[in-house]
Design brief:
Largest sheet: 6 strands, antiparallel
Helix content: 40-55%
Number of helices: 65
Distance between the termini: 78 Å
Strand content: 5-15%
Oligomer: single chain
Structural class: alpha+beta
Number of strands: 40
Length: 1970
């Protein structure tokens, strides 16, 4: 049975649990769980990070922890009982864990590894804390370390700053806001800047001396040297080195490492140096040979210098190699370091090129104790301390030091009978009072222990040696008296065994008889002669002699006159001994009472360090004198006391204040002193007003704190001694003193007057007195003193400095112990508030005001939970009454001020703003209902209340600003928001009561709504962006404040009533922004407001256009910022639709909601597509969708233009220059050639409409040029030229004409790639709205074939599934929750046939019209209808031809457009066969023509084509057609096909004739090595003729040879220059591999030389002739020839015998029937065209409705010719043999190898643009055959783009390609029908367009080459707006008219110009001011 748990509430998972049992809860190691119930070894509960899922888990898997339960029951929360640092650590590490993994994903390796180390470190420290074995101090250090690491990690990961006190997180609810702000600011500052250390230390570690001439031991001395004052700053550090140059005691690190301590900041200068002197121990001369002499001398070796400033930049202990210099002469040794510093090069030189001293030097900063903690290793392994000479900048009271430093300066010696100068060595001894040598009290420096004696340097042969050697004598204080130092002088002989002979001595006593020590300075000592050591044994004998020449009596001329002298410099650094006689006189005042007056006067002249040494003794002396002779010396003692007290204010001695405090508490015994002190103090105060000189009085007042301490302590001692006598007298004295003080404070003076300055001095020290007064007086009494004293200050003070001091006094008062007491607070508060209010109103001293307010409000918070609740409430009331208004005004003022320039000022400015804000928040948080009521009632008029509300709402808006607090202060922001929402809830009542109905005030309400909206939209309240743990904490503490505010907005909105109209449409945008916040509850509350707005707007104006307009405008900007989502769209739609169900305006409402919803769909798609990483194609498609929506559905011109430019930028980025031009034209067309001024917009400056349109024209022309769309650029050039001419701007006119000419040149000279087109279907709900369940035709990129395109689409939509068929998908696919892509190639159907059919037009020109302004595309799919004959599949092979019509023509503003209409037509097997043979015949003609005109580099293509056709025919190719269609059964069953059968027979004969002629041409050009093949072809041809039953060609066939009209030289000249022609001297049109001939019609006698395009794709072709041909491509396009992807939409349907491959039919059966989509190298498929070589394109004229593969394996060579439409009613030829030009149109041959052309025209739109009038086939009678194959056979030979494949097998091979000739868009005249009537069974109802449609389509045959061309077509359901298209009636000319016709001729793309019709100007349009 499950039992609720009592104690087992919280646990941590020890072992992962999979939760495989029923109701099991899966657990991971480390999860924390809350336990609800238990049952027999199982717990039931939930994981804390996911409390919604509950389940069971084994109790043994859980480690239970103690926990505290809040709100027991259903909603209980469990808090673990553990150290708060541990709790924080655990939760923080969990948060870091997830983010740490993300760092790895984002490849931020550095931070990843650093964080990993820190996390491990924290875990180790956590373990130490949990074990609980740490000492208290160690625990503190560990916690400090942990919190430092946590803060570091939080900062690195941009997490929130955690407010802490004593390492524990602070609950914001438990402290006041001001205190929280202080904590946050303190942590923020700590993070920002660390305070610079005032104390510095230099660490030195001697490594070694490197030199080539070593061999003797060395002594190295370091010291710090001041180059400015030329004196040492520190004592010396002494290291001994062995003969190898290494330290002698490597195991003792303190002998090689030292710390030069207590360097001040002033010592870190460039002219402070580390000086190193090196002394060698050995023979006199360094190069002397070794002798028996064992005496060692200390001789100079070298010196090194380094500046301390060089170390400031070094972060670590960098090793330095110091250069060692030697002096040129030993006499200069004493100043070698100075010479090096001054760079006096002549006096020193390098001691050796390789000599260097290796040392580690490092500067350390901070207190020595701090260093001990931070550099523990340094101090534990041993380091010697090297002190400064003298005391440090700050003297500590307990410091003990007694060091005497003596420097051996110089000597003057006589020769002593020697011929050369002496080698003098000094030996130094210290002897005590008994004459005994003091052991170990002579030190050469720190580092080495002291010795008994010291031997100086020996300078060679020098009677005036200068040593400058410093020694240290650390003599104990008690041994100082009576001790002396003796200096013995010896001559060191280099002969006589090197003995040292004594020749004199000097001595100096250390203390004088009166107790003063040897004074600091230089002393000239007397050298006493002495040659025997024994004479020095008794020191009492020589101590009686004089020691210094300065002390000699005047009558002792003997010693004064001697030349021999010895100079030393002494310096005492002692905390116990003094050299000052005045100090000693004062301390011994009882011995000499007569000197008291002088001693007290001289006290001020004594150095402060001397006074603090004897502080207690001095104070005892002063109070002793006062007790004994108060009348006589009272004033002097008081002044001396003031001097000493003020001395301790000095920063150097401030640490002695505790010494004085201790003295007062423990040692002071002047029980009667208080009377004298009060008396003298009052005397001084009374004299203030009248005194001329205030300096001394100010010194007295400065010391008043300690004077009061002495007074109070003295009185307490007196009370204790006497039992409280004279109490009243004392109180009277104090009251009188304060009366005097109040009198002098009340004086009004100018700021410059001395009295004002004295007042300021007193106010600075006055707060320090409170604590002393409290020791005797009650709190109320002291508060009364303070109140009265501060109250006497003049209110109108002119002294600015005094005002500041007054505030400082108030601040110290508020921070004092006195103010903390509630009793005194109620007395002091009014005074404080009065002064504070005055300052804040005048905006003075705001920093101090903020400090005072902060302190006051911090105290109020502390007392809130105490007993003094009513007192607190009263205080809050007082503060609110006095300061709330002025506080609001202050915040407004300082927030609106410009930020100061300096960083320090800016910091201060920010601080004061933050502090005032914290004060305001603290005050508002303290306010209760009663306070709000009183506040609102206090306003005596509505205007005042209105101003207050406006003020507070404005301030709240300031508080919400992101820059108000640093970005990681989330805790502070949440507290702020909590206070704001609480206050707003109170104030909203006042708003409702006072400003509604007739008292309505728009400004207040607007401010309220505006505040509410920005409150909800704050980033710090968007909980969705936070981690789950952070979100949970916020919700538990504050709830979702957005929802609360949203409910309040709704409630307030409902109260408005008819005043709502004031906020429509102004509040639509802000409210919309609120509803876009992803919080479901908030959305449910706020969305209904829009219904309300619609309703009220409907009532007011009968519609809600305003609401709609505003909604649409704001949606765009808000959603582009990333707001809103799919859920919001659905919610908006559903809520509002439900709301308007019963409204009378329901229909228009539904329309609005639908419009807005559709806009959201597009905006969401747009936003998703614009994300980083999305492909350009998707971005462009989405932008086009949105742009069209704005224009067509919303008519928002400004938004439309904005998106035009966004689309333009996308196209430029993707290098779609043509599309970019079309896009910019949309804006260009909105403008007119007028002088109307336009405002600045987007990147356009302010300019006239004419200028902007000119700029746009030039930009568009430039982009058309880059996109090689020169024809379109020409039209714009003309338009601009017209404008320039009309303004007589001939300069620009000339430029424009030249530009136009250059575009013509480019058309003729440069090659253009012909693009491929692909149909793409997007099916499934997962696609964006603008693609979902729609089909598009896309214009491919340069060189992009089908496989590449398909791969690109799959890359753009990585989750999409490629559909493996071309059938239209069913509803299951449409509704599927997935993405399906259906892709196949389509063939364009050109619209403008007149240019394509005209003779003599070069291919370069025609190529433009083949692939531009294409509306229709087609593709063919072969299929078998009925029973399939396995022997002959041609009998049942039908073709399904689909024609796709687009909403806009390609190219346009996008690379793809949606399919608007699809039409289907079925082509019968017989019609299919006719098309296949027509195409093969055309290809043969083209190849023969090219061969004749020598356009082919070799004859191989013709050879292969002939071989393929003849070989296939011999093997039964054509015979299969005979079997299928010429048998009696077929003719009987299909009587309606009689004409077509005749036409097929005619084509067979024609093919045979062409083959015969081709063989004749082949024989002429065939090379010798291919003769056998030619012979074989001839033999096979005869076999073929016999198999066809042809013995002789009919007369009409034999009548004339094959003639090719287009092969004329003129045609060649008009085409591209010879690129392929082998001789290079003749212009040859490119009709080889890269050509795309599109033959619309042809005569059998005129095979165009330009019809050289491939007809179709290849199916099942392996060693086919196209590969052979591909070996001879044009130089510029050879890379394309073999790269074209194979056609997947080709089906081989020829019998195997016809294709030369017995397996072919079976092998590719699946391709025909399943139309598989998968691309392969040369696949057989029925879907995608194979983008083969450009010359392998299928003819694109069509007759049926679709473009599907044909079955023709012969026609697979690259030079397949596109046949013209064939007339199957053979009587149509009766009209006579028209010329090639008239009957068959032109052949297009582009200059570059573009992609396979795809067209999608349908049969019903086949209307000819040819001038030839053709009749209905049924009505004409034409003989079955034309008289000659060279004449016309049909007026409309339609090529249905059979894709002919196989190995050039026959003209009847399997259909293989869904490409169409470019001429397939040829339209018949209005009355015509297709020249081959469809069988009745295949005629579709919509296969022929209605006659009403035809004239309209003819009217705009060639759409303009720019804009989105609107076809004025009634079939379009939604025509594009006027501004998106050029009206159909204006056809700009494609070819330039003659100059005189320029402005009269109409612009038409077909090149015709009618001079009678004036050229239309652009129609006026409504243009917004953009």
């Amino acid at each position: 049975m499950w039992i609720p748990t009592e104690h087992e509430k919280y646990g941590v998972v020890l072992v992962s649990f999979r939760g495989t049992v029923q109701h099991g809860l899966p657990l991971e190691i480390g999860d924390t769980v809350q336990i609800l119930e238990k049952c027999e070894g199982w717990f039931r509960g939930f994981i804390l990070k996911n409390p919604n899922i509950k389940g069971i888990f084994p109790s043994s898997y859980i480690h239970l922890k103690n926990a505290h339960v809040k709100n027991k029951g259903q909603f209980e929360t469990v808090i673990p009982v553990e150290d708060s640092v541990i709790t924080e650590m655990t939760s923080t590490l969990r948060d870091w864990g997830a983010m740490w993994k993300q760092l790895y994903v984002k490849n931020e390796g550095d931070l990843f590894h650093r964080l990993w180390h820190v996390m491990n470190e924290i875990l180790d420290l956590r373990r130490q804390v949990l074990v609980g074995h740490l000492t208290h101090d160690r625990m503190r250090d560990v916690k400090q370390h942990i919190t430092a690491r946590l803060d570091w990690g939080n900062e690195q990961l941009c997490l929130d700053l955690v407010p802490r006190r004593e390492f524990s997180m602070v609950d914001p609810d438990e402290i006041s806001v001001t205190e929280l702000y202080r904590l946050m600011e303190h942590r923020h500052r700590k993070k920002e800047t660390s305070a610079p250390a005032s104390t510095h230390h230099l660490f030195v570690h001697v490594k070694s001396l490197m030199s080539t001439n070593l061999g003797e031991e060395l002594e190295v001395f370091f010291h710090i040297y001041d180059g400015r004052e030329n004196r040492p700053l520190s004592e010396r550090f002494f290291v001994k080195l062995n003969k190898s140059g290494l330290p002698k005691s490597p195991e003792k690190t303190e002998r090689q490492c030292t710390l030069f301590v207590d360097l001040g900041s002033s010592d870190l200068r460039k002219d402070v140096y580390i000086v190193v002197h090196i002394i060698r121990i050995g023979r006199m001369g360094a190069g002397e040979k070794k002798n028996l002499c064992s005496v060692q001398y200390r001789r100079p070796f070298g010196c090194a210098v380094v500046s301390i400033a060089d170390l400031l930049t070094a972060d670590s202990k960098d090793d330095h190699l110091l250069k060692v210099y030697a002096c040129n002469t030993e006499s200069e040794w004493y100043q070698i370091h100075e010479n090096i510093i001054k760079k006096a090069n002549s006096r020193y030189n390098l001691s050796g090129s390789n000599t260097g001293l290796a040392v580690a030097l490092q500067l350390l900063h901070g207190d020595i104790e701090q260093l001990r903690r931070e550099y523990m290793v340094l101090f534990t392994r041993g380091v010697s301390i090297t002190r400064k000479l003298g005391f440090s900048d700050v003297i500590m009271p307990g410091e003990m030091r007694n060091d005497l430093y003596i420097t051996l300066e110089k000597g003057e010696f006589e020769k002593g009978g020697k011929s050369v100068a002496r080698n003098v060595e000094i030996t130094v001894y210290v002897l005590d009072i008994d004459g005994q040598i003091l052991k170990s009290h002579v030190a050469a420096g720190s580092g080495e222990p002291g010795g008994d004696e010291y031997h100086s340097l020996v300078l060679y042969h020098n009677n005036s040696p200068r040593w400058a050697e410093q020694i240290k004598l650390p003599i104990p204080v008690d041994m100082f008296r009576g001790s002396h130092v003796r200096f013995e002088f010896r001559h060191c002989s280099t002969k006589d065994k090197g003995e040292k002979k004594l020749f004199g001595y000097s001595f100096v006593p250390l203390m004088q008889e009166d107790g003063r020590t040897l004074p600091d300075g230089t002393h000239e000592l007397i050298i006493h002669k002495c040659e025997e050591n024994t004479s020095l044994a008794d020191c009492s004998r020589y101590l009686k002699q004089p020691f210094s020449k300065a002390n000699l009596p005047s009558n002792n001329q003997t010693l004064k006159g001697t030349k021999e002298s010895f100079w030393i410099t002494s310096f005492l650094c002692s905390t116990k001994l003094t050299q000052n006689g005045d100090m000693l006189d004062l301390l011994k005042w009882r011995a000499h009472p007569e000197r008291i007056n002088d001693s007290l006067s001289k006290l001020k002249e004594i150095d402060g360090s001397e006074i603090v040494k004897f502080l207690q003794d001095t104070l005892d002396t002063l109070f002793g004198i006062l007790d004994e002779s108060s009348q006589r010396y009272g004033l002097k003692v008081f002044d001396s006391l003031v001097h000493i007290i003020n001395l301790l204010q000095d920063s150097k001695f401030q640490h002695f204040k505790p010494v004085m405090d201790t003295y007062i508490e423990s040692h002071f015994a002047g029980a009667l002193s208080y009377r004298d002190l009060i008396k003298v103090l009052k005397w001084y105060v009374d004299r203030i007003v009248d005194a001329e000189h205030q300096d001394h009085i100010q010194q007295v007042l400065k010391a008043s704190e300690y004077i009061f301490k002495y007074i109070i302590q003295s009185r307490r001692l007196f009370s204790l001694a006497t039992g409280g006598q004279n109490e009243e007298e004392f109180r009277v004295c104090i009251h009188e003193l304060f009366m005097s003080i109040r009198f002098f404070l009340s004086q009004e003076n100018k700021s410059t007057s001395p009295v004002a300055q004295t007042q300021a001095v007193f106010l600075r020290t006055f707060p320090a007195v409170y604590g002393e007064l409290l020791k005797i007086f009650t709190v109320r009494e002291v508060a009364g003193f303070v109140r009265e004293t501060l109250g006497t200050l003049p209110t109108a003070v002119h002294a600015d400095c005094l005002e500041a001091v007054k505030l400082q006094c108030i601040a110290k008062t508020v921070e004092s112990q006195l103010y903390i007491n509630p009793e005194s607070r109620c007395i002091l508060l009014p005074v404080v508030l009065r002064i504070l209010q005055a300052h804040m109103q005048e905006q003075r001293d705001l920093v101090m005001c903020a400090r005072i307010l902060t302190s006051m409000l911090s105290l109020i918070k502390k007392e809130e939970n105490g007993t003094a609740e009513p007192v607190v409430s009263e205080e809050v009331e007082l503060i609110v009454e006095s300061l709330l208004g002025v506080l609001l005004r202050t915040i407004l003022e300082i927030s609106n001020r410009p930020q100061p320039a300096g960083p320090a000022m800016r910091l201060q400015f920010q601080d004061v703003t933050g502090e005032f804000v914290a004060c305001l928040l603290a005050l508002l948080r303290q306010m209760s209902d009663r306070h709000y009521e009183q506040l609102l009632q206090a306003f005596n008029s509505k205007d005042n209340l209105r101003d207050f509300l406006l003020q507070i709402f404005t301030v709240f808006r300031i508080l919400i600003r992101p820059e108000m607090f640093p970005k990681d202060w989330t805790v502070m922001r949440l507290v702020t928001n909590n206070v704001i929402i609480t206050t707003v809830l109170y104030l909203s009542d006042a708003l409702r009561k006072n400003f509604l109905n007739d008292k309505f005030d728009y400004k207040v309400w607007d401010s309220y709504f505006y505040l509410s909206v920005i409150f909800i939209n704050q980033p710090c309240l968007q909980l969705e962006s936070f981690s789950p743990s952070k979100r949970k904490k916020i919700l538990e503490k504050y709830g979702d404040m957005r929802v609360m505010m949203g409910c309040e907005i709704f409630s307030m909105w409902q109260n408005l009533g008819e005043h709502k109209l004031n906020f429509i449409p102004a509040m639509i945008g802000p409210f919309l922004e609120v509803t876009l916040v992803p919080q479901p509850d908030l959305r449910n509350v706020m969305i209904p407001i829009f219904h309300d707005m619609m309703d009220w707007e409907q009532r007011r104006s009968g519609n809600f256009k305003q609401v709609e307009a505003k909604l649409i405008d704001k949606l765009d900007s808000l959603m582009s910022e990333g707001k809103g989502d799919e859920t919001y769209r659905e919610l908006f739609n559903s809520i509002l639709l439900k709301k308007i169900e019963r409204e009378t305006w329901r229909e228009s409402g539904i329309s609005l909601i639908a419009t807005v919803t559709r806009l959201m769909e597009r905006l969401l798609d747009y936003r998703d597509c614009m994300k980083l990483g999305e492909v350009d194609g998707k971005k462009i498609g989405c932008t086009v969708s949105l742009l069209n929506f704005y224009k067509t559905e919303l008519n928002k011109e400004e938004m439309y233009i904005r998106y035009i430019h966004k689309l333009y930028d996308l196209h430029l980025k993707a290098q779609n220059y043509t599309e970019a031009s079309y896009t910019l034209l949309l804006y260009d067309e909105l403008l007119e050639w007028s002088d109307r001024p336009l405002r600045e917009f987007l990147n356009y400056p302010m300019q006239s409409e004419w200028q902007r349109k000119e700029y746009l024209h030039l930009t568009i022309v430039q982009n058309f040029d880059r996109g090689k769309c020169w024809e379109n650029g020409i039209i714009l050039c003309r338009e601009l030229a017209d404008q320039y001419e009309s303004y007589y701007d001939y300069r620009n006119l000339s430029k424009m004409r030249m530009m136009e000419a250059s575009l013509y040149d480019k058309i003729m000279d440069q090659q253009r790639l012909e693009p491929e087109f692909f149909r793409v279907g997007f099916y499934g709900k997962k696609f964006p709205f603008f693609l979902r369940n729609k089909e598009f035709v896309c214009r491919g990129h340069d060189y992009e074939r089908l496989e590449a395109f398909q791969q690109r689409m799959l890359n753009e939509f990585p989750h999409a599934i490629a559909m493996q068929h071309v059938n239209q998908p069913d509803q299951t696919i449409y509704q599927a929750d997935a993405q399906y892509l259906q892709i196949y190639a389509v063939t364009p159907i050109p619209e403008s046939q007149d240019v394509l059919q005209r003779d003599g037009v070069p291919d370069n020109i025609k190529s433009f019209y083949k692939f531009n302004h294409i509306w229709r595309f087609r593709y063919d799919r072969p299929f078998h209808k009925g029973t399939k004959d396995k022997e002959n599949e041609f009998k049942s092979l039908w073709v399904e031809r689909t024609t796709l019509t687009l909403v806009q023509s390609l190219p346009g503003i996008s690379r793809w457009f949606e399919v608007e209409k699809r039409e289907l037509v079925e082509v019968s097997p017989l019609e299919n066969a006719i098309e296949v043979i027509e195409n093969k015949n055309l290809q043969l003609r083209t190849l023969i023509t090219q061969c004749q005109s020598r356009q082919m580099q070799n004859i191989n293509p013709l050879t292969m084509c002939l071989n393929g056709v003849i070989d296939a025919a011999v093997n039964g190719g054509l015979a299969r057609y005979q079997e299928a269609f010429f048998v009696k059964d077929y003719i009987m069953n299909h009587p309606e096909d009689g004409e077509k059968i005749g036409r097929l027979r005619e084509l067979m004969f024609e093919q045979a004739h062409i083959l015969e002629y081709g063989l004749a041409v082949h024989e002429k050009f065939v090379p010798q090595d291919m003769r056998p093949l030619h012979k074989k072809l001839v033999d096979q041809f005869h076999l073929m003729k016999s198999s066809l039953g042809i013995q002789e060609f009919p007369a009409y066939v034999r009548a004339s040879p094959v003639h090719f009209t287009n092969g004329s030289p003129r045609t060649c000249r008009n085409s591209v220059p010879n690129i392929i022609s082998p001789d290079g001297g003749r212009g040859v049109a490119r009709r080889s591999l890269p050509s795309y001939p599109a033959v619309n019609r042809y005569s059998s006698s005129s095979l165009s030389s330009q019809a050289s395009n491939e007809v179709s794709n290849i199916t099942g072709q392996s060693e086919s002739s196209d590969e052979v041909f591909n070996m001879q491509p044009s130089p510029s396009t050879s890379s394309l020839s073999s790269n074209h992807s194979a056609s997947p939409n080709v089906t081989s349907s020829a019998p195997s015998s016809a294709r030369g491959s017995p397996q072919m039919a079976e092998k590719h059966k699946h391709s025909r029937e399943n139309a598989c989509l998968s691309p392969r190298e040369r696949p057989v498929s029925a879907i995608f065209p194979n983008p083969l070589d450009p010359a392998q394109r299928a003819p694109s004229h069509q007759i049926g409705d679709t473009t599907l593969p044909r079955s023709d394996p012969n026609l697979s060579a690259p030079d397949k010719v596109r046949p013209t439409p064939s007339s199957w009613s053979l009587d149509s030829v009766k009209e006579g043999p028209p010329s090639f030009s008239d009957s068959f149109g032109k052949l297009l041959c582009p200059p570059v190898p573009p992609r396979p052309p795809y067209s999608g025209s349908s049969a019903k739109n086949m209307r000819s643009q040819s001038p030839v009038t053709s009749r209905s086939p049924q009505k004409t009678t034409v003989p079955p055959f034309t008289p000659s194959p060279t004449e016309c056979q049909s007026t409309s030979l339609v090529s249905n783009s059979p894709v002919l494949s196989g190995s050039y097998s026959s003209g009847i091979s399997s259909l293989s390609r869904c490409s169409v000739s470019e001429a397939s868009g040829t339209e018949l005249p209005a009355g015509d029908h297709p020249s081959h009537p469809l069988p009745p069974s295949t005629t579709l109802p919509n296969s022929v367009s209605s006659s009403s449609d035809e004239p309209i389509r003819r009217e705009n045959k060639t759409p303009p080459p720019y804009s989105v061309y609107e076809r004025n077509n009634p079939r379009r359901p939604v025509p594009l707006p006027h501004s998106l298209s050029i009206p159909p009636q204006t056809d700009p000319p494609a070819l330039p008219p003659k100059p005189h016709q320029l402005r009269t001729g109409s612009m038409k793309l077909d090149g015709t110009s009618d001079p009678r019709v004036p050229r239309p100007r652009p129609l006026p349009r409504k243009v917004s001011q953009l």
